[in-house]
Write a structure and sequence with these properties.
Blueprint: H1 10-13, H2 32-39, H3 44-58, H4 66-71, E1 76-77, H5 88-91, H6 99-128, H7 132-159, H8 185-202, H9 218-231, H10 235-247, E2 273-277, H11 299-303, E3 315-316, H12 318-325, E4 337-339, E5 353-355, H13 360-365, E6 366-367, H14 382-385, E7 395-396, E8 421-425, H15 426-437, H16 447-460, H17 486-502, H18 509-516, H19 520-528, E9 532-540, E10 546-556, E11 566-567, H20 571-576, H21 579-582, H22 589-594
Length: 600
């Protein structure tokens, strides 16, 4: 059962940073922070209620900015209308007036302000307690609040102004308190690392009881600490935290057998989940679905096809589609065979089985017209379920409710989804640890161990494994029979394993990967040179009638059709991207205008 996140105290407790629209008359009234200390923050029950408001703030999807942050990478095309788009994130023309940049900043600081309320009052209460159980309970609440403050600052550090942002480690009481100057990037990093370390040391490995499902754990803190050190190329420090997650049995973490469980409602909070944000469509239906206080999200509508209740505002980029479609299967694995009828193309007349159209990882990540083995909305084939028109050759399955509804419009009220957002899962940790073992592609000593981790992730999806035949944990599985060194294994991680395993997941995962590797401009330039075209797909529909989905199968190369359409991705991004301008978001102009100390 999901842990529901309900904001019980937000109005009475705080007024967040000026860019989150404090009312003008607030400063003329009695300070609600002073009132709340006397009337609300009396005991651990109140403290836990305050923590609920922190969890509620962190589910604001503006923090994760899934669509725009991925448009900045090589993951997606911004909606229908090829070849034209005005999307400033995809084109690399965004500036400090963008709504998504402002909303992300505002929502992230809301988490910080609410966390500070809990931390400040929790520390005050602990100083008055003599009962050790009360102290321990309050300490765990503070640890959760520090986790959220820490991860929020890590997001700001990685995304804004080269890491230099204002630090708030207190509860503002006067107007001037809201106008903090910029802290240096090194100060911000030290601040959030200290918070995450406190969480790591004081959070349990797991929580008991259904009522605690969804609470952050020491594993989540370890993952964020390890990621932070990896991003700074401190592989030794990062390895310690990743190894703890993988080898510490107290965490109970394991890769799930079916990769699709990581994207479905039925698979929420599974053994692979490390940090996951909970949503539900069963509450607050009276609110506008875009309201930050809503406990649902709107991502399913953003990603779903137009005839299935979606806006298709983000679709897989051309290279990503083909990379998924070209994944090689482990033909020794029975999961890669499906039942067929005698005489069907590829059907073995003895076993009446044939190979899958595409890998399990591909089929659960994207929907393509000729995937004959993984149903789509309403249990229909992808070709039956949607028309793939307007030069739309694939859709993301992730974040959509294809497995449970006939169309996204079936969810009432419309535009809402209860699917959780998975921010960190164990496969990500495996791949980050693999990168640490080869030290970013510079050390051959850890290649064998790193390959074993990569192959665990691949084996879960019945993919052909990497490395020499007969090697590794699964010697009987099909291998690509390539002798990898640190450099070539790193290239595999960069351009195959991480993007295909983690597409659209986490917090700006792909963008931050490409930027930290220093290849973002080069990547855009390379992809802008590639050409693709779309062939037609004839099929027999559910009623037994022949139909054709025109221009629905993506292929590489110039269109062989006279006056045919050729896909070109990232042409403008290749020209426009400038690391000094587009590597980080600017501080929102509304914040610069409101805070005079940002100009000093």
């Amino acid at each position: 059962m999901k842990k529901l996140i309900v904001n019980k105290i937000a109005v009475a407790l705080l007024c967040v940073i000026c860019s989150t629209a404090c009312s003008d008359d607030y400063l003329e009234e009695t300070n609600p922070n002073e009132l709340s200390t006397g009337s609300f923050w009396k005991n651990n029950v109140d403290l836990n209620g305050g923590l609920t408001a922190v969890y509620n703030a962190f589910k604001n999807t503006s923090i994760f900015n899934v669509v725009s942050d991925n448009h900045r990478s090589d993951m997606s095309w911004p909606g229908f209308g090829r070849p034209n788009t005005q999307n400033s994130f995809y084109l690399q023309t965004f500036n400090d007036a963008e709504n998504d940049i402002r909303n992300k900043w505002s929502a992230t600081y809301t988490v910080i302000f609410r966390s500070n309320q809990v931390i400040s009052n929790g520390e005050r209460l602990i100083a008055t307690y003599k009962d050790q159980d009360k102290i321990d309970f309050a300490t765990q609440i503070i640890a959760q609040a520090k986790f959220f403050r820490g991860i929020s600052y890590s997001y700001l550090y990685n995304m804004y102004n080269q890491g230099s942002v204002p630090i708030f480690d207190f509860v503002p009481e006067a107007e001037s308190d809201f106008y903090q100057p910029l802290s240096s990037a090194s100060e911000v990093k030290a601040f959030y690392l200290a918070d995450l370390e406190f969480a790591y040391e004081n959070l349990p490995p797991v929580w008991d009881g259904n009522s605690n499902v969804g609470r952050v754990t020491a594993a989540a803190a370890a993952a964020e600490l390890g990621r932070s050190y990896l991003y700074e190329e401190d592989y030794t420090a990062a390895e310690v935290y990743f190894n703890d997650i993988i080898t510490n049995g107290e965490y109970g973490r394991a890769l799930v057998d079916n990769i699709g469980d990581n994207f479905s409602e039925a698979g929420e909070f599974n053994s692979e989940s490390i940090l996951e944000v909970s949503y539900s469509i069963n509450f607050k239906s009276e609110l506008n679905p875009y309201d930050s206080q809503n406990v649902s999200n709107v991502l399913s509508r953003i990603f779903a096809p137009g005839n299935l209740g979606g806006y298709r505002a983000s679709m897989p980029s051309a290279w990503l589609q083909l990379a998924y479609k070209n994944e090689e299967l482990d033909m020794s694995d029975p999961r890669n065979f499906v039942p067929c009828e005698d005489g069907e193309e590829g059907c073995d007349p003895v076993t009446l089985m044939r190979p899958r159209s595409y890998s399990l990882r591909a089929s659960y990540s994207i929907a393509v017209v000729d995937d004959m083995d993984t149903p789509y909305y309403g249990g229909l084939s992808t070709a039956d379920a949607t028309v793939f028109n307007n030069k739309e050759t694939a859709y993301f399955r992730k974040y959509t409710n294809w497995a449970t509804v006939n169309t996204e419009s079936d969810i009432v009220p419309n535009t809402r989804s209860g699917l959780n957002i998975r921010l960190v899962r164990l496969a990500d940790v495996y791949l980050m640890l693999a990168e640490c073992l080869i030290k970013g592609g510079t050390d051959d000593a850890g290649v064998e161990q790193a390959m074993a981790l990569v192959n665990e992730v691949r084996h879960r999806s019945a993919l052909k494994l990497i490395g020499p035949n007969g090697s590794g944990t699964y010697p009987g599985a099909d291998h690509d029979d390539i002798a990898y060194d640190a450099k070539t294994l790193m290239e595999h991680l960069m351009y195959v394993e991480r993007p295909l395993e983690l597409s659209e997941e986490g917090h700006a995962t792909r963008f931050l990967d490409l930027r930290r590797w220093g290849v973002l401009k080069e990547r855009f330039q390379d992809l802008s040179q590639r050409r693709y075209w779309a062939d037609n797909y004839p099929f027999i529909d559910k009623e037994g009638k022949p139909l054709t989905r025109w221009g629905s199968i993506l292929k590489e190369g110039e269109s062989p059709i006279a006056n045919g359409f050729t896909f070109i991705d990232y042409a403008q991004a290749a020209v426009n991207y400038n690391e000094s301008v587009h590597g980080y978001y600017p501080i929102p102009n509304s914040e610069v205008t409101a805070n005079p100390n940002l100009n000093n």
